Amino acid sequence: MTENILQVIPGGVTAPKGFMASGVAAGLKKNNKVDLALLLSETPAAAAGVYTTNLVQAAPLVLTRQRVAEGLARAVIINAGNANACTGSRGLQDAIASSRAVATALAIPEEQVLVASTGVIGVPLPVEKIVDAVPRAVEALAKENHMAASQAIMTTDLVPKEVAVQVQLGETLVTLGGMAKGSGMIHPNMATMLAFITTDAVISHGVLQQALKQAVDSSFNMITVDGDTSTNDMLLALANGQAGNPEILPETEAYQLFYQGLLEVCSALAKMIARDGEGATRLIEVTVNGALTLQDGQKAARSVAGSNLFKAAVFGKDANWGRILCAVGYSGATFDPSTVDIFIGEVQVAQDGAALEFDEEKAAVMLSQDPVTVLVDLKSGASSATAWGCDLTYDYVRINGSYRT
C-alpha cells in the first residue's frame, strides 16, 4: 500500500457516491439524545456481513443475516438504547416492523432494509417510537449527515467513530467509508460492536463477502477490551457500484487494491473501538514477530492484548513484563519460551525469555504513551500479527456496575 494509491478523506459512511445518512432522536435514550440512524444507498447495493459467534443472537441480527444472504440491500436502520435481544418472538416482529416503516417511507422493497440494534439486553423494544421517528429520519437523509448517524449509534462510546478512504483502481477512483460503535463487551470474533461500511465500487455480493471476512480477521477480530462477546455484533458492507469501475474479481490487482482500502477502513475503526474502551485511558498495540505461523502470531498478540493483569499494569504504568510472557504462554501459540524477547516501547525488558536490567523510569514513560506499544519476538518463524486493546481502569467497573440504571 502506498500513499498515492490510498488516501484518507473526510465524509465517513457517506463519502462514497450515492450514499446518504441521518441521525434523529426517537426517545430510546434519555435526555432526547440522537438514537436512531438511517443509512441509504440511492441504488440497490451488493451486501455482505459478518456477525457475532455468540450462540445467543438478537432478533435484528437474525433478520439481517437472512436478508444479506439474498445479496442486495438499499437501507440500514440502526437504533441505540435497546438491543432487542432475548425478547422472544416479539423481538423479531419488532425488527420487522422497523424495517417495514423504512421500506414504506422510502418506497423500497422491505427485504432490502437491514436492521441493527444496540443497548440493554432483555428489554422489549419500544418499536412504536422507532416507527414514529422513521419519517423524520427519512426527511433528514443527506450526504452531510454522516456524523449525526455515527453519533446516533453510540451507547457508552465517548466519541463517534468514522473514517473514509479512496483507492485508485486503474482509471477509476473508488471510495470506501465507514462508521462504528463499540466501547465495552469487546473481544475477538466480533464484539459489542456495530460497524457499517459503504463503497461505490462495482463488486459482487460473493466477492465483497470474501474480502470482508478476510479484512475482519486482521482487524475487528484482533481487538479486545474485556473478553465479552455480545449478542448483537455485526459488520455490514454495502457496495452500490456508482464508481463505475470494471467489476472487481478475485485474485486480481484490483481486488488487492480494493482489499487494502477495506482493510484500512476496518483497522481504523477497530483501533478507534479499542481506544474508546469503557473507562480506558490508553490504547495498547501488541505486535508479535517471529511466529511460526500467522495463527500463532494472532493467538499470542490477542492473548497479551486481552490479559486483564497486563491491562491493569498498563493503567498503573508498571512494566510487569512477566504478565506479557505469561499471556503468550497460555495463548495456544507454538514457540520456545527460552528464545522470547520483549520490548515495551523503546525499552527491552526481557531477552531469551529471561529478565534484563532496564530503566524502570523510562519504561514507565513508555507505558504513559498513547498508544502503549508492545513487541514480542518469538524467534520461531517468519510470521507477524498485531492486536489492539486498552488499559483496565477503575472506571470500567463503575460504568458496568450501573449500565442499566
Automatic annotation (TrEMBL):
Protein name from the UniProt record: Arginine biosynthesis bifunctional protein ArgJ
Quaternary structure, from the entry: Heterotetramer of two alpha and two beta chains.
Annotated site residues (Cleavage) in this chain: 191-192
Function per UniProt: Catalyzes two activities which are involved in the cyclic version of arginine biosynthesis: the synthesis of N-acetylglutamate from glutamate and acetyl-CoA as the acetyl donor, and of ornithine by transacetylation between N(2)-acetylornithine and glutamate.
Annotated substrate binding sites: 155, 181, 192, 278, 400, 405
Feature type site, description Involved in the stabilization of negative charge on the oxyanion by the formation of the oxyanion hole: 118-119
Family: Belongs to the ArgJ family.
A GO MF term: L-glutamate N-acetyltransferase activity
InterPro entries given in the database record: Arg_biosynth_ArgJ (IPR002813), ArgJ-like_dom_sf (IPR016117), ArgJ_beta_C (IPR042195)
Keyword tags: Acyltransferase, Amino-acid biosynthesis, Arginine biosynthesis, Autocatalytic cleavage, Cytoplasm, Multifunctional enzyme, Transferase
UniProt EC number: 2.3.1.35, 2.3.1.1
Annotated active site: 192
Cellular location(s): Cytoplasm
